[in-house]
Amino acid sequence: MPALKCAPGSDDMANAPALAIDGAEPIRSRPFPAWPVFDASDEAAVLDALRSGRWGSRLGEGYGRAFTERLGSMHRCRRAIATANGTVALEVALKAVGVQPLDEVIVPAYTFLATATAVTTLGAIPVFADIDPATYTLDPASVATRVSSHTRAIVPVHIAGQPADMDGILGVATTHGLRVVEDAAQAIGAAWRGRGVGAIGDAGTFSFQSSKNLNAGEGGAIVTDDDTIADRAWSLANCGRSPGGTWYQHEVAGSNHRLTEVQAALLVAQIARLPDQMMRRERSARLLESGLRDIPGLSTQSRPEGVTTHARHLFVIRYDASAFGDRPRSWFIRAMRAEGIPCSPGYEIPLHRMPGVLAARRTWSEIARATGRAIDIPTDPDAEDLPNTDRASREEGVWLGQSLLLGSDADMADVITAARRIREWCDSSS
Fold it and tell me: What's the CATH number for 40-269?
């Protein structure tokens, strides 16, 4: 493949540092740490589950019970329910707190698709609020402007592993009598003012999909301190059965969202090494924050004082094209990748512009009108007024993944060196 040229030739370029994107030697050629991480303890746990003959079970038994007890202890919540994946965890949690068809649920537009589709799956309507431009988490001020008489719940997303402003969000929820379901898919181990995320609101959900810091290929969980919510969530995820009831006793119209024993066994092994991994990721993130701070045009995710523990699922860089000769984010990402630094633009299409989400919102809005509900949901993305979200998605956000953060101090130095080389090249070529 021919080298990608990134600037026009000129006499001024003679002194510019060479970039790998133009064919120069890259900063690094060795890979960053592989993911997932496993050893003999994972193999032993999985084999034990296999040999037990109990590959699937009712929720709260065997490895499933061991894992949920460990998760509950880590996040300082009384109840935890394992599920098949993070998406159904969010669906079940929303239903358990009382979200019904045609209710409105406020969610950030800067998040994974499942945050919105969990709402639409219940027949409810996602209403999008903007993010804080410095933290990329849900902005309570924007949430407050979206509340209507039909609003039932708020779903803050702890993006990249950083807790959202839970003080502000709970303040809006309390004022208007709303439920709060935390989407903590990226935030296992994170804490706001010393409280584990998930059980700060009415309920919270986690994902153990293959890219997550705690990984079983798939899997999820719901946590809460509310026994009524917990019992309802358990029932909804376990075919409508009641805790303590018989196998064929179905009290509600639930479904099968259970985690298997093999997945639970893997999670028991994986969660044992999570604290050490979190310390490594935190050290790496601190090194990156320090090293990138002096490079004009690059800033990092701001950390409010309420964030006592950041899960560091992602390291988010905010890219300012004006400091790089107006070269777009896509050019910077290509240049970093050429230097051997894996990175991505993250959520390039925000949810309020996602075709599938727009179609679902139109459907439920039409049903609402047909049934006489006075619900006015925007269907024109440009009318949403989400400038921070659009800028983060289209121009600014650059992600470094969690497995990169498991690298050594020398690995982090390579990231910084690559970014500095690219910035110096831009200075020389201007």
Answer: 3.40.640.10
